[in-house]
Amino acid sequence: MPRHQPVDRPTHQGEFVLRTQWDGKTTISNFLQAPGHSDFRQCRVQPVNPERELIVYNHTFLEQNFQASSQPGVFTLNEGNIEAENALLAAEAELSKLAKERMSLVDAGMELATEQGRADEKHWDELWAQKKLYDGEALKYCFVGYNTREKLAEKINSVKLVPVVDTLEGLATEAQELLAADGEEIASIPAFTFQPGEIEKDPLLQEAIVGSQDSYLAALINELGNSDWIRQALGFVDQQDSRCPYCQQPLPPDFYAELGRVFDQTYSKRVKQLTALKARYEAGVAHIQDQSSRKAYQLPDYQPHLAALQVTFQKNIQLLAGKITNPSTSISLASTADIVAKLNSIVQVEQEKIDAFNLKVRNRKVYLEKIKTRFWDCFRAACDGMIVAAKKAEKANLVKRDEKREAIEDIKKKAQIQKDIIARSRAQITNIDQAIESINNSLNMLGLKGFEVVREESELPRYRLVRPSRQDGVFKTLSEGEKTLISFLYFLEVCNGELDTKSGKLKTNRVIVMDDPISSLSHNYVYDIASLIYRRVLNPKDRFKQVFILTHNLFFFHEMLKHLKKADEFSLFRITKAQYSGFVPMKASDVQNDYQSFWQTIKDAQEGRTWRQSSRT
């Protein structure tokens, strides 16, 4: 069968629904009669009220009550026991008062639930806003599966609050590095090695390199202390000239030969050793400078040590150059070992980071999951203030709702006491004879002769239809119109009476549903049935909680309108069916006759509110 769209709950005591061709009128009455049936597992009646009684007149009601040879008796009140009657009236009044109090508490509880719903929405929005701060590319994978506010809130609340040392920004950096690596490991960082550093302790640098003592000039040169100056000056004079380059006096024979004996091969060898040491030292410095210029060594931690190393190198090279120029001087080079050691300690720290990162790259999936776990711990801590505030408000709301529930339970207990009083009082002042008399009087009023309702003598009070000449199977001998009328008269008694004297429910909580009380074969009784409905169902207007009348009969529709206008509170609807049934509000003047009804069907088809017959199931 087709499903039905949800319909807003009517707000008036009387609801008149006019059906058109192929609508869902019968489906609606069947659902209200048996809402628990498997055909209606997707349908609901709102609001839920255990005190509500739904009494439905339709073809199913007729079959259930008149296929058997007798019908259950309907208990109605009679006069005679004033004390019991007064007790009944007092209990009904108190039960009605309690029902109003209960509904007030239910409404208050629902408002608290709605208030909590709004608070939940606000809390979810706050958590969602926090999520947006960290759901960029790096940490986006942490939020997979939590793409709604509700799921995100459920996840956060499932995470236990623990102390955290991580920051969300730091975790984002870790994740970004892993994701960006794409399986590629970072190259290791070579340590700094400066082999020429041993030159800084070479004994030759402390040695005063002077000429040979074999020449008669050696003593004079040593006494003057200017051997370095003389060695350098030899390169600028013409040794073929026998005159002194300064005073122009003749020089002693073999003067330059004697000077050469002072600066012999041993002296030259020492100077060459100094030059080699300097060249080797400069090569080592160049290697260090090239290494330190690489990207891996540009971290801030390296820079002060590299700067100090560069200054030391420059000073040592200057000292070496001075030693070569003045071999007789003694020099001491500054040690670079401590600076290189400090640089290598930084290299070691960074290398450990690289090794750890490369391990993560090799096991990227595992480490991303670890980052995710740490992320949720950190995110939970970041949201703790919001969660604490939300839980505090929820707890306060829950306390109030529990108070309402306890008050409702207390009212239920009080209501049960009144129901027991009602049941006992009704048992003392009810019988089925009054309903029999009412049905037979209505039959006479309608001019239906030849059969009547009598009491059947049995353990349980029941009715039976009889004819003067026939006692059994009388209902089968009736015309379809007569069947409709007698079943409807019985229905009116059920509405106003009780099938069970032990029932303690209020009749004012009943909802009455009538599906076509006028058949095509009983149209002569339109006026009478409409009058009965008004007198026995609609008047007074607080007799029942709500009344639904469904019909396709325009004559009956307009006849009922005359009475409904007296009732003052009613609504009119028209049922249409496309893929689903729908309720369309209407005015009393919208449909005056069958001609207008047919045109309305055509308009519904044009507006897509009808279902083609070939599509019906």
UniProtKB/TrEMBL annotation:
Q: What is this protein called?
A: AAA family ATPase
GO biological process, alphabetically ordered: response to oxidative stress
What lineage, starting at the top, does this entry show? Answer: Bacteria, Pseudomonadati, Pseudomonadota, Gammaproteobacteria, Pseudomonadales
Organism whose genome encodes this protein: Pseudomonas sp. 13.2
Q: Which domain of life is it from?
A: Bacteria
**PROSITE patterns in the cross-refs:** PEROXIDASE_4 (PS50873)
Residue ranges of domain Plant heme peroxidase family profile in the record:
371-539
GO molecular function terms attached to this record = heme binding; peroxidase activity
